[in-house]
Design brief:
There is one protein chain. Helix 4 (74-93) crosses helix 7 (161-168) and helix 6 (145-156) crosses helix 7. The chain is built from 8 helices and no strands. The chain has 2 domains: 1-95, Rna Polymerase Sigma Factor, Chain: A; 121-194, Arc Repressor Mutant, subunit A (Orthogonal Bundle). The chain has helices spanning 4-18, 24-44, 47-63, 74-93, 123-141, 145-156, 161-168, 172-189. It starts with a helix and ends in a 5-residue tail after the last helix. The chain has 194 residues and is mainly alpha-helical.
């Protein structure tokens, strides 16, 4: 989640970028590359596709820098670009995506979004936590695209409903509705774990 200091840095870097200081893009990428990559991983279920689209997202930021409104929140604009690229990629695939957040990172060996709470001290506890996390990832992956986008942005990326609505180019009420329906479906599918 962004804070006022980060928002101010983003606006300053975008102003520098628009003024011809191309290296300002490096500062923006340093702050936002990892969150964009993780968002795209969760949407696409592929580290390779997410990496490609994360790079393309910043290429689009550079190309469209003159269209950025100085009074807008940079992270909202950035995630809108990333979300649109993800939607295009999913349409291009031509089928309902099989999103798997279980894909292990080549560098860490951990699956995306995986974190073990400190109470998983025993092997049995750790196994239970991993099974529960896998069940949640699978249930989220099975959601319809519009509900999955809302859940990923609001619950996993910790975006406010209003910001998610701006990113998804819809109304906050529509995002709230998608979240409600998604949570209902997740409660049903995860009843064993609740």
């Amino acid at each position: 989640m962004s804070d006022p200091e980060t928002d101010a840095l983003d606006r300053a870097d975008m102003a520098r970028l628009c003024s011809g200081y191309d290296t300002a893009l490096n500062d923006l990428m340093e702050r936002h590359a990892a969150p964009v990559f993780h968002f795209l991983c969760r949407m696409l279920g592929s580290e390779d596709d997410a990496n490609d689209l994360a790079q393309e997202t910043f290429v689009r930021v550079f190309r469209s820098r003159d269209s950025f409104r100085a009074d807008a929140k940079f992270s909202t604009w950035l995630f809108t670009i990333a979300a649109n690229l993800a939607r295009s990629q999913l349409r291009w695939r031509g089928h309902r995506p099989n999103v798997s957040l279980d894909a292990e990172s080549e560098t860490t060996g951990q699956s995306l979004g995986e974190s073990l709470p400190s109470d998983a001290q025993t092997p049995e506890g750790e196994m239970t936590v991993r099974e529960r996390a896998a069940a949640v990832r699978h249930a989220v992956a099975q959601l319809p695209d519009d509900m999955r986008e809302a859940i990923v942005l609001c619950e996993l990326e910790d975006k406010a409903v209003a910001e998610a609505a701006a990113i998804l180019e819809t109304t906050p009420k529509a995002v709230e509705s998608r979240l409600y329906r998604a949570r209902q479906l997740l409660r049903q599918r995860l009843a064993k774990w609740l």
